[in-house]
Structures are given as structure tokens and as C-alpha cells.
Amino acid sequence: MREELKKGVDIESSGDYGFTPLICAASKGRVAAARFLIEQKAVVDKATQFGVTPLHIAANQGNIEVLSLLLDHGAELNRRTRAGECALHLALQNPQPQSVKFLLERKADATLVSTASRWAGTPLHEIARQKGMDECASLLGFATTAAPPPAPPAPRIVFDFRLEPTDTAAAPAVDSATV
Predict the structure, then answer these.
(1) For 113-118, which contacts have Cβ atoms below 8 Å and span 24 or more sequence positions?
(2) Residues β-bridged to residue 166
(3) pLDDT at 163
(4) How many of the other CB atoms lie within 10 Å of CB of 129?
(5) Which has the minimum average pLDDT: 73-77, 138-142, 152-156?
């Protein structure tokens, strides 16, 4: 690969269907090759004619190290293919539970539904259930219904004797014996 690039081969050159060298590395789980291509400025979100990116391929193949590498270098986590599928959809289709878990840990949007595939309109947790991926179905279901974290407590305001608001940290100590 290094020799080909020295000869002037375009790092974004693609073969059938728009598969670039980075997509090929992602599909085979070749972490070192993917890292090298990214270091040589390969575009991490370059899509095929179907809108499939290296991240989609890595998710579909269960290549966690490649997923991590791509995300760490700016791959769009919730990008959709032309069929309206995100990486979570593709991880469910193969099925790759480790990819689903990893993508959820990286905060993938579990509420996305496919718009044009055979799963069009079907929630991700239901796809997982139909595929017999019960643990993933539970995780996806939880990710879509989990309550947001609680808001931090409001700051406490204390009034001094002049009736002006002050911050509790700056409020003077009052000796109850002198009042």
C-alpha cells in the first residue's frame, strides 16, 4: 500500500461500488492498514455509491478496533446510508452485538429508524428482538426511554441584614448571641 501511494495512486481511488482502500481495510478488520490510511489523510466518512461509509462496514463486520479508530478520527456516528440506515442498523443486520454495545457506549442515537430498507419504520430495539438479540433489544429499548439526567441543584441564595442577595460562600457568619 505504501508503495502504491509513493507511485501516486490516489488514496481515495475506488473500485466497484465505490469501495475505497479505507472501506476495504474496515471490512477486513485491518486496524494497522486503516490507521495508516487515515494518517495519509484518507477521508474517514467517504461513502460508496450506496452511502455506506467505513464506519457502517466496520459495524456490520463487528470490527470494534476499527470502529474506535474511525470515531476517534471524526467519523460521523449517526450518518445514514442511502437506504436510511445508520451503523446500529448495520450492526443488527449481521448480527454483531458487540458493535451494537460499542456504538451505544459512544452515544449512537438509538431512536433512528430506517427510511427505505426492509426495516423501514421499525425501531432498532424491535429489529434486535426479531433477530433474537435480546440483550441488545433491552439496551436499545433502555436507550430510547431512559430519563435524562437530573438537573444540577439551583444555587442557594442567602440574604444578609441589608436584604441584598449574596452568594452562600461569600455570606458573612452571623453570631446568634449578638443578634
Answers:
(1) 113/84, 114/83, 114/84, 114/85, 114/89, 115/80, 115/83, 115/84, 116/82, 116/83, 116/84, 117/83, 117/84, 117/85, 117/89
(2) 158
(3) 57
(4) 17
(5) 152-156
Look at residue 63 and give its three-state secondary structure: coil
pTM of the model: 0.74
Beta strands in 27-138 (DSSP E): none
Are the CB atoms for 69 and 35 separated by under 8 Å?
A: yes
Per the DSSP assignment, residues forming a β-bridge with 157 are 167
The grid coordinates of residue 25 equal: 481495510
Look up cell 477486513; give the residue: 28
Burial tier of 173 (Cβ tally within 10 Å: 0-12, 13-18, 19+): exposed
Domains of the chain, each with CATH number or no CATH: 1-76 (1.25.40.20), 84-147 (1.25.40)
Give the separation between CA 95 and CA 157, rounded to whole angstroms.
Answer: 54
